[in-house]
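Build the 3D complex.
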Amino acid sequence: DIQMTQSPSTLSASVGDRVTITCRASQSINNRLAWYQQKPGKAPKLLIYKTSTLESGVPSRFSGSGSGTEFTLTISSLQPDDFATYYCQQYNSYCTFGQGTKVEIK
Amino acid sequence: QLQLQESGPRLVEPSETLSLTCSVSGDSIDSRTFYWGWIRQPPGKGLEWIAAIYYTGDTFYTPSLKSRITISVDTSRNQFSLKLTSVTAADTAVYFCVRLWGHWSGYSDYWGQGALVTVSS
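Done.
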């Protein structure tokens, strides 16, 4: 199994901050990485797929980058609607998720 | 607009079978581009992909649950279903049905709202 490790587990930030979340895979995943946002009581929402492709309708303040085994999700200027939990997912071999990063208000 | 909706019992007794159905509206389930699957999330925990199916009936399962799980598709009703046998408290989770892009383990661009299934006597 490919293990996905996200860091940090929790992130405290203010509106307007630049936020970066890291996801590390236990082996190469050929850039087959997606990012999701989940709010309490809701289903996850796809933000980015194939490492850096923004899903339709997702604000451009979200961006993804990386290669090999190291990937990042960046929010360029955190907005009130962005306080949520974020998950990375590899889909190169089966499908596994990171443990999540909760972005909370500082 | 594609919509997925889970239905089925929300309370299942230990050792019994969990059964859920996902009804798809807004698109045909026999699209060649997509697979259909289930992802679960225990309360307060992370996400776990558990099964997927193609409209042809080809099935794919996570190895840890393969002996207990069955996924099926009914193209005439535009639905797919999940059965998980011999459930325990560890199977208590929100079960999401999803559309998978391009591959049985692809990313999920559409999700149902989720169904909390509790295993308890």
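The longest strand of chain B covers residues 93-101.
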